[in-house]
Amino acid sequence: MLELDQVGFGYNPRNWVFREVSFTVSPGTATAVLGPNGSGKTTLVRCAAGLLAPVEGVVLREQSAGFVPQAHGSAFAYRALDMVLMGRAKHVGVFRTPGNADRAAAFEAMERVGTAELQDRLFPTLSGGEQQLVLIARAIAAGSPLLVLDEPVTGLDLKNQVRVLTLLRELMADGMALLLSTHHPDHAMHLASQVVLLGRTGARAGGAAELLTDVELSRLYGVPVSTLSYSDDGVARMTIVVDYGPDVSERSAERPHK
Ligand SMILES: Nc1ncnc2c1ncn2[C@@H]1O[C@H](COP(=O)(O)OP(=O)(O)OP(=O)(O)O)[C@@H](O)[C@H]1O
């Protein structure tokens, strides 16, 4: 379980990224954080995971969270399996080396996200999408009932996006509590019962069906957005249509070429 109560954060005094953010993530549910670039999604999930201390308010976690950062190049040439084994740190303990149970848990997590064949590859030599999947395996290997993910499908192809969304729904069905940031309102609708919108006029938390509407999403992103929401086998699905603006071919024809 994760609870944020009136949480505010700013990197500099008097310059808040967000304030008065309150929500609870219960076991077996997901909450999605949405907002434009720079609105504070990464900052909020890092506060929730305990990687940043809030400037005001309280973050309550029953256990430490498994955390999936946005994929980043690692300067250290660890094997992929060793990266995943690092997720077992709290089970291994200080001054001990990982045992067979830790290796089995790490390998099982790699299999679960479909990266078992990458186990001996050096992490920096993996593609961005492969690195992202290995980082998700590392968080799963930690075995925490709370998983916090920062834009987990960034850089993934369509099949791997479906793989990750399916995996996250399986983890929820196992009783895990999930908090994720995302640029995909349709993914939020599919996974999350609750959303947090980080907008220009402040943060709002509420039900996904109530807040993921044409009006709210158009206001949040500042472009016309149309949605089509439906439920298939009890699973929420959403199609998003963004208005990409007028035809610019005539205008560019008028523009003088250099
Ligand atoms: N270490 C830092 N020091 C100062 N300001 C920062 C720092 N990290 C982020 N910021 C600023 O805080 C704000 C929120 O950043 P954050 O990365 O949380 O946004 P985001 O919603 O995750 O963005 P994106 O969608 O582009 O990933 C931005 O204005 C950003 O420039």
From TrEMBL:
Any coiled-coil regions, as ranges: none
PROSITE patterns: ABC_TRANSPORTER_1, ABC_TRANSPORTER_2
Keywords: ATP-binding, Nucleotide-binding, Transport
Domain ABC transporter residues, every copy: 2-225
Top-level taxon: Bacteria
Entries under SUPFAM superfamilies matching the protein: P-loop containing nucleoside triphosphate hydrolases
InterPro entries in alphabetical order: AAA+_ATPase (IPR003593), ABC_transporter-like_ATP-bd (IPR003439), ABC_transporter-like_CS (IPR017871), Metal_Ion_Import_ABC (IPR050153), P-loop_NTPase (IPR027417)
Gene3D superfamilies found in the cross-reference section: P-loop containing nucleotide triphosphate hydrolases
Pfam family for this entry, one: ABC_tran
GO MF term list: ATP binding
PANTHER family per record: METAL TRANSPORT SYSTEM ATP-BINDING PROTEIN TM_0124-RELATED (PTHR42734), MOLYBDATE IMPORT ATP-BINDING PROTEIN MOLC (PTHR42734:SF6)
Family the entry assigns: Belongs to the ABC transporter superfamily.
Name of the protein described by the UniProt record: ABC transporter ATP-binding protein
Source organism of the structure: Arthrobacter gyeryongensis
